[in-house]
Amino acid sequence: MTDLPRMFPPWLDRLQIRYFNPVVKPLAGRLPGLSLLRHRGRTSGKGYETVVTTYRKGNELAIVLGHGKTDWVKNVLAAGEADVVLRGRELHLVNPRIVPPGAEVAALPAVARLQARGSAVFVADIA
Known about the structure:
Layout: H1 10-24, E1 34-40, E2 47-53, E3 55-57, E4 60-64, H2 71-79, E5 81-86, E6 89-99, H3 110-116, E7 121-126
Antiparallel strand pairs: 1-2, 1-5, 3-4, 4-7, 5-6, 6-7
């Protein structure tokens, strides 16, 4: 699965990275729904922090991939692990995988399931 369906156009990605993410990054991990994903570059080994919208049910964490297979997705899949700050707690993620559009994901609430009909979903287990 090298390319995934996208809900958002590339220009919106650039706008979000440049303007939106720097504003919400200090709040990510403390506000409901917004989390801070900590991962390492797959070739550089450099540490990164990415703002994501997460959903959790039990020990499963899900992120709808509205932006497609971005660098953070590739990094986490390559590493096989990452950390996420969710509601002020840092959790370790293992067994990352991509679930195809329309597949059932237990961690997604009803509204997110509608969104996931046309988008793949990143799923990982909380260690």
